[in-house]
Structures
1.
Amino acid sequence: MPLLKLTIDNIEVEVEQGTTIMNAARKIGGHVVPPAMCYYSKLEGSGGKCRTCLVKVSQGSFKDNRPMPKLVASCRTLVQDGMVVQNTISPEVIENRRAITEFLLLNHPLDCPVCDQAGECHLQDLSYQNGLEETNTDEARRTFAPIDIGDLIKLNMNRCILCYRCVMVADQITDSRVHGVLGRGDHSEISTLIQNAVDNDFSGNMIDVCPVGALTDKTFRFKSRVWFTRPFDAHRECAKCCGKTVLWMKGEEILRVTGRKDKYGELEEFICNDCRFVFKQPKDWTIEGPRKIERHSVISQNHYEKLDKDENEDKNVE
Amino acid sequence: MAKKILLDNIDVPGLASFEVYKQLGGYSAVEKALKNLSPDQVTGEVTKSGLRGRGGAGFPTGMKWGFIDKKSNNPRYFVCNFDESEPGTFKDRHIGQLNPHLLIEGMILGAYALGARTSFIYIRGELFYVLKIIEKAIAEAYKNGILGENILGSGYSLDLYCQPGAGAYICGEETALLESLEGKRGNPRIKPPFPAVVGLYGCPTVVNNVETIAAIPWIINNGYEAYSSIGIGNSKGTKLISACGHINKPGVYEIELGLPVQEFIYSDEYCGGIRNGNELKAVVAGGSSVPILPAELILRTTTGEPRLMSYESLSEGGFQSGSMLGSGGFIVMDHTTCIVKNLLTFARFYHHESCGQCSPCREGTGWMEKILHRIESGRGSMKDIDLLVNISKHIEGNTICPLGDAAAWPVASAIRHFRAEFEEHVKLQKCPF
């Protein structure tokens, strides 16, 4: 199959047939990558819902050079040969992204100071980049009481942006799904039917895929702000999963265990609940070394690192 | 008298029974098609008749049938969209309740043309009594050899089922309808792929509105030329209009497309004028989703031409000064109506019916309702009016399915044409009506 050519923000890239605009942008990397609140490359059928990744297609293809009439969801639109995409260079896209951010925050409690997700929250990042400085609304927000779905996961529905990722994890990674979306519109909620408990070996991954603080780890609840913990890559022999994790430590104590996330905040591999919740002693793990964290992240705050020798040399050249 | 195609015998007692329908010449189109016409010929007749989708979008029916994936080895499905739930629209119920065999006959013809062996009528759950009528009619059709194996000895077999929904407006969107029919949560699918390629159970599927399907038997019986000679421009045939609101004679009327709006509202054959001799204020011409028009713009276009009941004439002027024919839910308001209150009712409906899948519609519909409620109850500010315009602009076109547009258009158009009334609410800090 010949490769397809497209340009995103005037940067040319070649991708294989069947690639989405989002993944083509990720191939380029950097600022041209649209934000994604619901798309998750490891979950089949995800994306298309949050509308933060909408981009403008100013030329459909070489064959049909008309622009697409509406903004399209880059995570679900396939690349055509000769497509011209505008992301950050289109004022229309930026304006809409600002509006979508406003919509997502409309019913969000903004309780970051007491939310365990703060510091690694995608909605925080999105509103930092695209949010308004002032609020347009003084409407009452929808509220739900936080509930326990099983022993290990806390559901705080007020924070949920209904990305459906946790539903897809339950469908695709675990052997049965006992939770889902109930109701519709802005009164719909993620819940289990009649206080059913989410209880299976891979349910903990729902915490990792949640872009906000709606699903949090009960074993880590209120223990520490994430940026006061130090992440280490570690592994153990595990019969159920790959056993490759990140340990979030304070001194010698392991406060929580998560899967390893790439720069888009997506898990590299899903891990089992034993690795995540049971083995919390340093002796259970082979520690590989400090986890590289994106420098822009809040978590890298106060973690000064010596720059690599190569990077130093680059600096000198500049 | 205008030509009657769908409501020709609607007043005949017992029309819902097989015997009466058959006596009046029913099922002759099925006989004609299965014995003398190939499936492609049936499609050809429908294409050439110029019949357009009556559910609201007005897409040419024959063309929609032509998109079905012929290369696929999967079975094909023909589905009838009976999830009529748009406020102001009650035309499909009229057919289903009084003339169910007409719908069944149309279903057989459509399924035959598309090569489907199984067909579904997806009916709105609230219309349970209509479901009972249709199920009885289906049973009669089976008994008389019109449905089932080897219909009328032609070798063609078809099974027809009627499935009720659970009462969601969103399931009138065709992909949400298919999801619901499959037994899932009725969330619209992200397109492409379109149902003609990946539809019900992943197979090629065509979904048509009740009224569209009900027009097919007449086209087969009388030929496409007879049908396309009715109407005006690209709006061929007749259309059911469910007229309601402040008129003297609310009800379901069959009109030839191209009828002047003036005549429709004021003639005794149709709406019979405004109640109590009141003054016409505004009309929502095609169900709650379409833009509202003030009296001067619904009766005449900006160029001074009389406005006609047709797809083209009603949309003339775009969204600045036009509207849409939509599903034919004709809501008339006289000068005693508060536009803000009316809009609040619509906004509440869309807030309630948004599926909640994509964020602009989920959050925006609720937000608009809250702001409108504030303005109507006398607590609004001038800033709120601009905010409403902004929100509707940010919902429109950014959603997965057209429900977002349907929620945004009424708000945008009401403020465009009746801004002074919104401002009056704010100035008086109460509803002036």
Note: Residues 102 and 131 of chain A are 7 Å apart (CA to CA).
2.
Amino acid sequence: MQAPWVGSAHACWLVGMTTPTTAPARAGIAPAPQKVRGFIALTFALTWAPWLGALALGGDLDRPSSSSCT
Amino acid sequence: MIGGFGPSLAALVQRLRGIRTPRSARVSRIARWLPAAALLGAAPAVIAAVAGPLFGAPALTMDDVTATFAGSGLLQFLLIATVAGPLAEEFGWRGYLQPRLRVRLSPVATAGVLGTVWALWHLPLFLLTGTWQSTLGPVEGLGFLVSMVPMSLTYWFISERLRGGVPAAVVMHYAGNVALSLLPFTALAGGLCFLVGVLGIAAALLVAVARTPAAPPGDRPANRTVPTGLNGRRRTSPSA
């Protein structure tokens, strides 16, 4: 007899690895890898430029409470 | 502080370029996604605070809790916690990137990619004095970065699966930041409990998703394929 967790684990594997694309596809977002790459590049540029600039200037944000974000 | 707005700013730039992202949030489902987002966001820090002392971490005192906002005041602390992280990031991560990754990838693969990008994005904060990340040791820091992959699965659950969209992600991020600030790690054991908590929540959600249908009938567009959520097979919903 199959242990109960085996069924759950198998279902999790299936839903995690093979669930077809759902809400975004239905909502009409076309697959566009360049838009993903462009967004990631833009995000890192907008973020890392000031952060690395601060690092180059001594690396102290001097605002402890404002940077505890995850 | 300004750099932290990168993800939401990038999403805004894309929007101004005419790249639109349909809203996925459903106000009618707020009774489901709002409490779920708040609870799931705060849960890992609460788990770490409760379980940490069982594994040798010093128990938190009320002074530890209030120390976070003792200097700035509670209102300023809550305001900063709303802006720094939740509003500054989620329009980008969950509002723009997640839906586009989901067009081609499964939820787990999406969480893997998004969580990795999200973690890499945080790296400079470890080098900047004055950030929370810079106070972490190497192991805690690695745990923080690793936790972002399973955490991304939880964000997927509340934003897409529960139809909470960006508002739910903002609430979850806010709850997570506030909980982590009020209940900080006091030792490595606490950090490990946090990571185990994040992993456990993601695993539990996978089990829950595997056992429940994908969406209630009212949310299904007519004549479109939707997943069963159990075996990955598509099925066609009836015409409206």
Note: Chain A touches chain B through 52 residues (CB under 8 Å).
3.
Amino acid sequence: MAEFSTPTTEQEFDANFAQIKPLMSNTEALYESSRCLFCFDAPCIKACPSGIDIPQFIRQINTGNPTGAAKTIYEANYFGNACGKVCPTEVLCEGACVYNLNEQKPIEIGRLQSHATRKVIDSGHKLFGPGPANGRKVAVIGAGPAGISAACELRALGYEVDVFEARAQPSGLTLYGVAPYKITNAETLAEMDYLEQQFGYRVRYNQRISRREELQALEDTYDAIFLGIGLGATNALLLPGEERQNCVGAVEFIEQLRIGHQQVQVGKKVVVLGGGNTAMDAASESARMGAQDVVLAYRRGKDEMGAYEFEYDLAKAVGVKGLFNVAPVEIVGNGKVEGVRFIRTATVDGQVQAVPGSEFVEPCDMVIKATGQAKQTGFLHLIPGLQLDGKGRIVADARTGQTSNPKYFASGDALNGGAEVVNAAAEAKQTARGIHAFLSGN
Amino acid sequence: MPDLSINFAGIKSPNPFWLASAPPTNSGYQVMKAFDAGWGGAVWKTLGVPVVNVSSRYGGVNYRDKRLIGFNNIELISDRPLADNLREIEEVKKRFPHHAVIASLMVQSRQEWHDIVRDVTNAGADGIELNFGCPHGMCERGMGSAVGQEPEVLRTIVEWVMEVARIPVIVKLTPNISDVTEPARAARAGGADAISLINTIQSIVGVDLDLFAPYPIVDGKGTNGGYCGPAVKPIALNMVKNCAQDPDVRLPISGIGGIENWRDAVEHILLGASSVQVCTAAMHFGFGIIREMTAGLEQYMTEKGFHTIYDFVGKALPNVKHWEDLNLKYKVTASINEDKCIGCQLCYTACEDGAHQAIRLQEGTRTPAIIEENCVGCNLCSLVCPVEQCITMERTDDGTQHRTWKERTAADDIPVTFNDERAGGLHHWVPAPAAALGKERHKTLPGKARALGSPQDAVASKATDVLSAS
């Protein structure tokens, strides 16, 4: 394999992680927007979790009104630029484009969207501002897509908003968890600055809320508390040898990569455990960081992977090899990872069963576990009366986002168990209105 | 192999494709290059007393990503000395003796006309075209379209020219007139050998939204130009037809207006043109387009069994009638091919908002359905449908009946009072006006945004909305 040499400079890193949805020039945007049919009751809108009026903004781009286009986008989704770049558009808006049914290329909606939003972000042209102050205060825990979207909407509704963020920078997984070839740090943060400047919420960085007393203080100070806390660390496999050096969680690996870029070391041969989109990202990223071999190991068959097909295609395109119907038994090695002992599996009546006597060791010097993220149940149990479902997800009213503790509202991964940036942004906007309805008594 | 050659009022040309008098025929260099590429003839950039031009001369009309579907210019006639042009005409004719070189002329006095006609004849031109069409600049000085709009003046000048002309004379007509057959008849009365049309249409192709000035802008100002390009073809075709059908014109017609491929040329020919002239397409794409034009024309003629151009000149004219002669009993109904439909629903919204509410949406599918009893057969849905042959118009009358407005008038069978029972739409169902307001899906807000309630509904949005407030 080794299509990519290990990057040693920022330039080499950027080249290895070239954007898969690069910025459209004005000319390209004109040509692409010209193709839009302006469907009635357009399927792309229905496929968008945030319901952006896509034909409208495409038409606005086409008529030389990119500012109006950006306004249409941001009215529906405060993460308009990020979503244009990181959304799985292949299965959302672009997947719904009627051109697919005519075996024509669908409109590149994501790239058109970011084309318009980047223009207003770069120009600093303000589209919105805070509403008249209504004297009420809301605390937002977590500055990810859910938290920031809720903060924007609440500010538009006239609330004073303080955001408490454990990390040093905003936007959550958009900055810390998305593959670097989907969006750059600079453009992620530029959108965050753009929003903060318009809406004027306050973000307290490096302020992890983790104790009951801290929650109590928020409860005493604020009229409502929005939980946009997302998920926690990668689930432990509970396998022997998991503690060995170079056996890491995918979420943690990707976070390091987003912040450290070329400073991050990957092994020569990497085994990624898992079949979801995060596994695909981690595998692609390992290859682009110069790993000579990357093996994606999944305990079921290829067709049963949770990852989107286009994500697997992306990984295959950079040389990642699939190893299916295998379950890890042990991480072998001597201090450092030297391999993964697998056992072959068969799916019988929908159940994965080990095939006795089929154990083998796949040698490697790095293991990335992409086996799901844990829920932050320990923290959530500090909130009196907060109900969680059997999977540790917050239970809340589907329309208002209000939890079983009426002062608390929630959106995003902590509520839905883990979805896209666009889902969190859309849910949070709705929940902000739920908070408004609750506090204004209608 | 069909024969593409023509003999147009005595002007011989290896094919019917001529470059129109315009910037592409400004010099011998360009005309030789065009002949070398395959053009059959060229009408030289109009000669007269050399002009002085402005900088910033052309303006364009773009449609979405398509450039120059319309084009205009404020350039005047040749700004080069006559002697230079004559020398180059001579050189071109020596090198290309079988190609057609037509000298376009525009001068004022009788003496000037006599002199210049003799000069271009001596230079070897195969014919002369009188420019009575230019609608900008020259008309302010009493030439160009100022002549074309005054049939009596036009006739007088044609007579002056015919006093000395020894080669065929074509009169080029302006479309900036209510009835183009009037100057066409005047040209015939004056003794002209042929007509050519249309010259450009007076136009403003656009206004700069920041400078508040029309394109093309000359130091902050602009003027009307002459409009041409693909957008003008329908106007040109109608005027060519009008002249071709007029029993008092009866002159060979050189068709001009929006021709950029073989199909456009065939359309002009089917409506009566026996040569065609091209300018904008050559200015846009260069002389190389001639290969597609001749190849397409040849293939068309082969497939239709036409041996010469004259086998189909005017072949569509018998089918161009007055409205009152059309069969009112003919009926077509739209039909949607469900296998081809991609569900854009443009047909639905077009019919619903722009026609006769004869298409409905169906539960469980995005493919709309035709309400046949409401369909008047207007064609709109088939015109907006983006998929080839997905919506077709099928004939639904039995083809046995024929009744025209003229016949109904003669039979005293037409509506004559405001509420006449013979009103064509009397029994056509239309929804009650207030039914329009209950159509949730007609609102422009997208589905999910509506379901969630717009943020603008939730708050006094005017204050938060910086863009619309400013």
Note: Chain A touches chain B through 48 residues (CB under 8 Å).
